Amino acid sequence: MKRRNAEVRDYYRLRYVGEPDYCAVTQSLAHTVVYAREDDDSYRSEIWVKDLESGQSVRVTAGGGYECSPRLSEDGASLLFVSDVSGTAQIYIAKRGTAEGGGSRERLGETCFSAPRPLTHMRYGVHGPRWSPDGSRIAFLCDCEPDLTDELLTVPLTETEREEVEALRSRRPVAITDYGYKADEDGGFTETRTTHLFVVDAQSGQVRKLSDGERDHVMPVWSPDGRRILATSNRQRPREESIGMDLFLIDVETGEIRQLSKENWIAYYPASFYPRFTPDGRQVVFGALYPDLSGNMPLTRLYRMEAEPGAPEESIWPESAPCHEATCFLYNGETMARGYEKGQVSEDGRYLYFISGWKGEVNLYRAAVTGEPEIVQLTKGEHYYSSMGEIRGGRMALLKGDFTHTARIVLYDTVTGEETVAVDSNAWLPEEVALESPREMWIDTMDGMSRVQGWVLPPMNREEGRRYPAVLYIHGGPTPFYGYGMTYEHEALAGAGMAVIFCNPRGSSGYGSEHESNRAAMDGTAMYDLLQFVREACRRFDFIDRERLGVTGGSYGGYMTNWIVSHSRVFRAAVTQRSIASELIEYASADMAGSSAGYRDFRDFMTHEIERSPVAYADRIHIPFLILHALGDMRCPVEHAHQLFTAVKDTHPDLPVRMVLFPGGNHEMNNHGSMSHRIRHYQEMIDWFVRYL
């Protein structure tokens, strides 16, 4: 039977698994399933537990619409998770028992879970909960206000109080005294809150605050004996070191906080890498930002040190490492569901297993914790891994996907290297939809300095001998990279009768530091890489009609879309998404403040910013032009869209120009807000290309 073409409405059927947590004692697997409901246009997240021996799964819920962060205790007797059923995210615990035990229970094969009970009642909710090794306590993070007592933090807001707070916030003047007063994820101005570490007794619910000050404390990890917590914080860093973080040891009983690392910036932003204790508690393994003096995005490298202040920080990253860095910035692959850490220490303490991307593949690697630095690549193939749970009983759960499968949960045996699929939430997709693996391409760049990898996705159910329009889709960043992962947005374009061209020009990570050049991403080098790749794709694939080419992209990809259509005549239509049009807007109005340092004077800086702003060349845009943007975007404020629309329409009164602004949402508008907005966003893009190509 002929499989049908992909449609954007398929997003209502897609289910995304995430946050896998494997328990060896009970042979069970907890995870989330994230999806969108069409009836009320909302995103939902559910907790499921699968019995790996019987194959049966059960949902465990406190009744919330968004429930996440499932964690099985070491013995599998309890499950904790976070639910928003009370209006704020709080920790709930469900006990595992037998079906004969009675009460309100969810069945799982021969076992069941009791009705979850609330454990915390924090004023602003919680996130990141983690069991202590013996299961008696739970560490979690909570946002705090400096003028709020610890006692008030544990008293939840009533619905009336919550409405009053929101009303006050909407009327309150905003006083600004320093940079960093905007945050895209908060949808506006940043609050005065900081993130702090707490511990709650799993039985009594008694809460203790462990951190202090006016700086954030994140990525908590228990020591094996449960007496200390390792946390990452900027408490000893000046505020201008916005991504500067250090490791701290916190004594759970006394609350004493001691700084552990000093030499390196712990990897928290832009890609977090949780530190880990070795099983004996004597050493700490962590990822740190390796300085790049060329101005590129710092790489994440691996280090070890004794779990005592003042100990040397030793690199376990050999110079001849077979991969780029100890994390990755995979751009494609559906990521609606969240994951856990990117690294885990083996049960014998000899190795650190981690995920890294290299030349489009995202694979599993193993670094030696003891002895001489050594890194071994454990998996190979055209796929990606995106997260991993803790190693228990020699196995760990990971998310794994490829071009024709959304991420599935797989169990990896650290002894044999064998892998089995445990959960596949979209098994129907490759059977029903005419998915194809894109055709891979490599080109040598015109300047001879690098090679560019990319792919061409053919139109679905295409006819031999027929030529089809093609769309160049430019990724954001510019640091992320396209890899071997499905992007259903691309599939929907292919389903509408277009080929999709996507590649990793200069600026993309995963190909070495010279290729990952911020300068090359912005000075025109990446643009020529893209144009050269499109030209070669048209030459190699006879189903592409080179007279009907479109271009699109979001964020940096939107910036490059604006730039490339104003500096070339290759494309017939363009769609720019949440893009940068004016560097002066980005300098003063975005949540990432700019700087005039290094210029002769401020006027020289202003002139340079205008010269590298795509809106300054709006008179050179001569093709149908669609602008898609979210009103709540703080990374690329919506004023970019307003200026670009006005400039193109002003200089081309008769040119088809359309701007669609989406209420709410933020910069990652395709992963937030409502699914109807996401579908409308994609459909606007597809309809534009169908009409003008």
Describe the structure.
Mean pLDDT is 89; it is low at 99-105. The protein is an alpha+beta fold and 693 residues long. It is built from 11 helices and 41 strands. The strands form 9 sheets. An 8-stranded mixed beta sheet has the order 34-35-37-36-38-39-40-41, with helices on both faces. Strands 5, 6, 7, 8, 9 and 10 form a 6-stranded antiparallel beta sheet that branches. β15 (194-201) and β16 (207-209) form a beta hairpin.
Distance between the ends: 30 Å
The protein's oligomeric status is single chain
Return Rg in Å. 25 Å
Q: Could you give the count of β-strands?
A: 41
Strand fraction: 25-35%
Figure out the total of helices. Answer: 11
Structural class: alpha+beta
Low-confidence stretches: 99-105
Shape: globular
- Helical residue percent band: 10-25%
Overall average pLDDT: 89
Q: Strand sequence of the main sheet, in spatial order?
A: 34-35-37-36-38-39-40-41
Main pleated sheet: 8 strands, mixed
Key words describing this protein structure:
alpha+beta; eight-stranded mixed β-sheet; six-stranded antiparallel β-sheet; 11 helices; 16% helix; globular
Give the SSE layout:
Layout: E1 16-23, E2 28-37, E3 42-51, E4 57-60, E5 67-72, E6 78-83, E7 90-98, E8 105-108, E9 111-114, E10 117-118, E11 127-131, E12 137-144, H1 150-153, H2 159-171, E13 182-183, E14 188-189, E15 194-201, E16 207-209, E17 217-222, E18 228-233, E19 246-251, E20 257-259, E21 265-266, E22 276-277, E23 283-290, E24 299-306, E25 314-315, E26 343-345, E27 351-358, E28 361-368, E29 375-377, E30 384-388, E31 395-402, E32 405-413, E33 419-423, H3 428-432, E34 439-444, E35 451-457, E36 468-474, H4 488-495, E37 499-503, H5 518-522, H6 525-540, E38 544-555, H7 556-566, E39 573-579, H8 583-589, H9 602-611, E40 625-630, H10 639-651, E41 657-662, H11 675-692
Parallel strand pairs: 36-37, 36-38, 38-39, 39-40, 40-41
Antiparallel strand pairs: 1-2, 2-3, 3-4, 5-6, 6-7, 7-9, 7-10, 8-9, 11-12, 12-15, 13-14, 15-16, 17-18, 18-19, 19-20, 21-23, 22-23, 23-24, 24-25, 26-27, 27-28, 28-29, 30-31, 31-32, 32-33, 34-35, 35-37
